[in-house]
Amino acid sequence: MNSAVPALLALLLVGALPAMAVVAAGPDDVAGTVSGDTPAQPALAVEGPSDPLDAVNTTNRLPLAGDVTSTYVRSHPDFGVTLSIGDSALRTEYDAFVFETRFEELSPTERREAIDSELERVDEEIEALREREHRAVREHAAGERSDRALLQEFTQSNADAVALTNWLDQLVVYANDVPGYSIGVRSQKEELGVYRGPVREHLVMTTSADGSTRQAQIAIAIQTSETGVTLGILDRDRYLRETTRYDHRNVSAPDQIGGYSNASALFEEQYPWTDDVSRSSQGLEFIDRQLYIRSVPHDHGEIDVYFDGGTGAVYYESQRLLVNQLPVETPTETWTNESLELAINRTVANGPIEVTVTDESGDPVRATVLVGETVVGETNADGVLWILPPHGEFDLTAQAGDSAVTATLGE
Description:
Blueprint: H1 4-15, E1 33-37, E2 67-73, H2 79-103, H3 108-141, H4 147-176, H5 186-192, H6 198-207, H7 213-216, E3 220-224, E4 228-235, E5 238-245, H8 260-270, H9 272-277, E6 282-286, E7 291-298, E8 301-308, E9 314-322, E10 333-336, E11 340-346, E12 353-359, E13 368-371, E14 374-378, E15 384-387, E16 394-400, E17 403-409
Antiparallel strand pairs: 1-2, 2-3, 3-4, 4-5, 5-9, 6-7, 7-8, 8-9, 10-11, 11-12, 12-15, 13-14, 13-16, 16-17
Helix pairs in contact: 1-2, 2-4, 3-4, 4-6
């Protein structure tokens, strides 16, 4: 642990550097905002829609409540991001150095008390992490925080969650050195998993200094509201989606679920297709943290669902889906002008849309695709591009040269 002393110096240096940069879209990139209202649905112990939206022949999906702001952003590699991510690790290393120095001088009883105190501090850090992120999301939904600043928050949350997870593992090591004493940290680590979902991991990878150039070209679809956030990306043939409903988390309220068997029944009720076709599943119950977790692989991918005991509702949902397995909602829809035809296939539950652009002869066209005034990508050699739609009604435009064709779409 002697390395922690120079680490502290590095920490002070990092603290003096500017905050990390996440580059929002420029004129040749993606940017823009579309707003709409979520239809009212029956409430489950909280205001606004609580149950996942029904999807025919695929997984249901957790919605946001209230006015929803939609935007698209690409993140880019930046050395400042790497330093910011390293900052959390350095702080943890220094805390470990201070703790170990003091720990060696304590009696067994005092060592137990010291570890218990650290576990309480970690609990407080987890609570503060959720409150900080929710504040950032609310500010973004209200137009008071930029896309760039919101992505900075998600990147920092991920880094903090990784650092806290590593520190919990270290506390287990310390506890094992105390005769007759052991600790369990699985519940804290599972809750920190909320900040380490597939889209957030993609964000960290693309914003670190050695991030993948190809990955950085992928647009991140963001939806925020007063109640929570949905993040989505299309990565080759995968649709990665995660939703956090902060209003569905209440650790101080009495448990509304009453055990994992009831949580399992809730999952079967709210995700019936997934439960019917699941190949296996893993269930976890953490009474101390008011969390019931179900992880299920299925025919279209995988889903992780976190039920909150205090509200009885889904607090966090993470999905990894295969785009080519998702059922199409309606027959192919087309729009034409003198020289272009725009055809779309919409998947259910406002999922990914397949956009195809051809000319008057039916040959594929490389076209720029816009949602509203936002460029979201370019069709490939086959004239095809998959996109993630925003919330509510929007205009979808395909533009090639001086020709353009526009479709107005909605939920």
